[in-house]
Amino acid sequence: MSKARIAALGLTAAVGLIAGYEGLRQSAYLDAVGIPTICYGHTGDVVMGQRRTIEQCGDILQSDILAAYDGIRPCINVRLTDGERIAYTSFAFNVGSNAFCRSGVARRLNAGDRIGACNELRKWVYAKRRPLPGLVKRRDSERIYCLSQLK
């Protein structure tokens, strides 16, 4: 069911984008800011020492992508291109839907400044007040998706 909904929403590319940047770790670990994490960046109900199968991780990833998308939908007052949908879902997956909704990204998007909203993604590269190279690369990829279908 999740796979079909992801495809219907045009989020298939988001699966590869997110999985590529999150990476797969089947054992629980602490992320860059000390949050227990497992699989492809999943942080909900994770206990250190926990393990998941590859299949479980794939299911969790799909569920988390849909949750990220569903979490940002109420904050968006414009129709998104496929590229924007992919970029903003990946962004919200990483920073959380609440952070997306309070961000300059959402404010600019809803104000009609779509290019400015895409460019705003580049500001979100910090963890513990320092830029992380992986976040810089991820935001660049999200920005490319975001701008890809804007005219």
Structure notes:
- By secondary structure, the chain is mainly alpha-helical.
- It has one domain (2-147): Orthogonal Bundle (Lysozyme), CATH 1.10.530.
- 57% of the residues lie in helices and 9% in strands.
- The chain has eight helices and four strands.
- A two-stranded antiparallel sheet has the order 1-2.
- Strand 3 (126-127) and strand 4 form a beta hairpin.
- Helix 4 runs antiparallel to helix 8 (133-147).
- The longest helix has 19 residues, at 54-72.
- The mean pLDDT is 96.
Number of strands: 4
What is the 3D shape?
globular
Query: H/E order of the elements?
Result: HHEEHHHHHEEH
Alpha-carbon distance between the two ends: 34 Å
Strand content of the residues, in percent? Answer: 5-15%
Runs in which pLDDT lies below 50 for 5 or more consecutive residues are none
